[in-house]
Amino acid sequence: MPGCLKKTLFALASLVSFVSFILIVVAMGTPKWMTGKILCKTGADLVNATDPELIKFIGEIYYGLFRGGKIRQCGLGGRRSKFTIFPHMVKKLNTGLHVMIIIFLCVAIFFSLVSFGFCILNAIKVPYRAINGPAGACLWNFLAGGFVVLAVTSFMAAVKLHHLTERIANFQENIFRFVILEERFEDCFWICVASATSHAVNLLLIAISGIHFPKIKTKTEEVNVTAEDIMY
């Protein structure tokens, strides 16, 4: 492949790696990975609320990896509150799994920056070692994307298998018990999915840069030199 096009592909790959880094940082800092509707079951049972009256007992909840908030509806109007996952709430959750999600994302941030650096290196010169060349860039992108996938999968497992939303909704609730009516993965979750997808795009760009196209040579016309040409 022509050097100019190859450098352009690696420059584009470096840009994608940097965008992936930004996406992960934004996702980790935003408290809206999950939103849902919560029913104050204790309050609804006390008054034997029927379907039209249940709306007075349905609140909302949202949370991310570090903080969140909820609106409690127990028949007396909505009460807003905010909470932080660390240091106290995490003890009531699956601590190991939650910490692993954060670690996976931190490692993905590191490898995204490494991928960014090595893609720039490939764009400005041809490295002499395989780990610095296209094979190395593929390795760093694969690792970064793989750790993002592990983080996303672990978060889904925490929500679906370990009932993360219900545990958070009932944290320090001594009187009322809340049940989950609805759960939705929000923008920050899908931002992480987009980050993993961007590394897959990088792998495709690097693979394209390794294709060797045949060089197009222009056929030169043969010039017949005669004795008269030499004389003149």
Radius of gyration: 28 Å
Task: Decide which structural class fits the backbone.
Answer: alpha+beta
**Any idea of the CATH topology?**
Butyryl-CoA Dehydrogenase, subunit A, domain 3
For the record, the CATH class is: Mainly Alpha
Instruction: Return the average pLDDT rounded to an integer.
Output: 85
How is the biggest beta sheet arranged?
Answer: 5 strands, antiparallel
**Helix content bin:** 40-55%
Order of helices and strands: HEHEEEHHHEHH
Categorize the overall geometry. Answer: elongated
Membrane topology: Multi-pass membrane protein
Keywords: Membrane, Transmembrane, Transmembrane helix
InterPro entries: Clarin
Subcellular location: Membrane
Topology of this protein?
Elements lengths: L2 H27 L4 E7 H6 L11 E6 L3 E7 L4 E7 L10 H30 L9 H27 L3 H6 L8 E8 L1 H23 L17 H5 L1
Antiparallel strand pairs: 1-2, 1-5, 2-3, 3-4
Helix pairs in contact: 1-3, 1-6, 3-4, 4-6
